């Protein structure tokens, strides 16, 4: 498939190999934006080794799904992009704010990390992944979510302010999913 094919037929369903490449390109673009703040398709192509047309296509797809936005610029043909800040709105369920594409990109990034961890610098080869099951009320679950958000708050401005990053800082995925576990259809009613 050529670059022209990608640009002229964006709505056709690609085969599995093309889908994996799409996730790879979009993940790389999001990682790059997290690292540098803003980037044009041409700059992304130079840094990532893809064509500028391919980067442009996937940047537009990320915009279409609400994950990036055009960054302010002073006219001209250059079109810089940045990660979109997702501000929670009162009354909107967290599930609606997150979106399937974001979860897919997170899962793809995790799989890429597992496959390529040995290529990272030695000091970055560990991760802090964990999971747990806790019996909570809905109110307690909300309090745990709030505590996690408060713990991350001191670091969030670094995404948009590269000068606020200490030497040696790198983008790190911070993913928290709090949800009730539903019984399997074969379970006999009742809760444990």
TrEMBL record:
Residues 1-22 are annotated as: Disordered. InterPro entries: ArsR-like_HTH, WH-like_DNA-bd_sf, WH_DNA-bd_sf. It comes from the Bacteria. Gene3D superfamilies: Winged helix-like DNA-binding domain superfamily/Winged helix DNA-binding domain. This is Winged helix-turn-helix domain-containing protein. The lineage of its organism: Bacteria, Bacillati, Actinomycetota, Actinomycetes, Kitasatosporales.
């Amino acid at each position: 498939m050529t670059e022209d094919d990608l640009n002229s037929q964006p709505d056709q369903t690609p085969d599995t190999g093309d889908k994996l490449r799409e996730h790879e390109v979009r993940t790389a673009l999001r990682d790059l934006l997290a690292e540098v703040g803003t980037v044009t398709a041409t700059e992304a192509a130079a840094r990532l080794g893809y064509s500028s047309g391919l980067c442009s296509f996937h940047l537009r797809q990320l915009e279409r799904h609400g994950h990036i936005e055009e960054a302010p610029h002073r006219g001209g043909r250059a079109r810089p992009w940045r990660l979109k800040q997702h501000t929670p709105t009162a009354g909107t369920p967290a599930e609606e704010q997150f979106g399937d594409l974001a979860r897919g990109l997170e899962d793809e990034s995790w799989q890429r990390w597992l496959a390529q961890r040995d290529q990272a610098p030695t000091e970055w080869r560990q991760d802090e992944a964990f999971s747990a099951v806790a019996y909570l009320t809905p109110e307690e679950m909300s309090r745990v979510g709030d505590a996690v958000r408060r713990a991350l708050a001191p670091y969030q401005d670094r995404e948009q302010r590269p000068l606020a990053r200490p030497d040696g800082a790198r983008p790190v995925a911070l993913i928290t999913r709090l949800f009730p576990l539903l019984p399997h259809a074969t379970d006999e009613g009742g809760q444990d």
